[in-house]
Fold Helix-turn-helix domain-containing protein.
Amino acid sequence: MTTTQELTAGLDDLPYNVFARVCPSRGTLEHVTGRWGALTLGALYEGSLRFNELRRRVDGVSEKMLSQTLHALERDGLVHREAQPTNPPRVDYELTPLGHGVAERLLALIHFVEGSMDDVLAARERYDAARA
């Protein structure tokens, strides 16, 4: 098992401090770990997608939320937007090298969570039963 000290070792040596209110890394962490950001990065890990393909892949996201998410991820340098001068216009989204590295780590977390869902569901059931 990993200790807290092992997990936090070296955090004080980093040039940014996500735990500080004004740290710019906090906003990026929010973009990456928010529901739509994480799912969008995970979906783009498989390759370039057009907006509507991405919207279908990330089931439940509204057009407005996906657009906002993509803008934030593009601004952070995680997603590249490629507009083709065709009629009708074609816009493709893909991960940048930085985005690929972030998505890889997110997918590891997603796999861990999905692999632990039996335990999570059992814990929820125990919690709900104790409060019923």
User: Anything to note?
Assistant: Residues 4-130 form a domain with the Arc Repressor Mutant, subunit A fold (CATH 1.10.10.10). The radius of gyration is 18 Å. Residues 55 and 61 are 6 Å apart (CA to CA). The chain has one domain: 4-130.
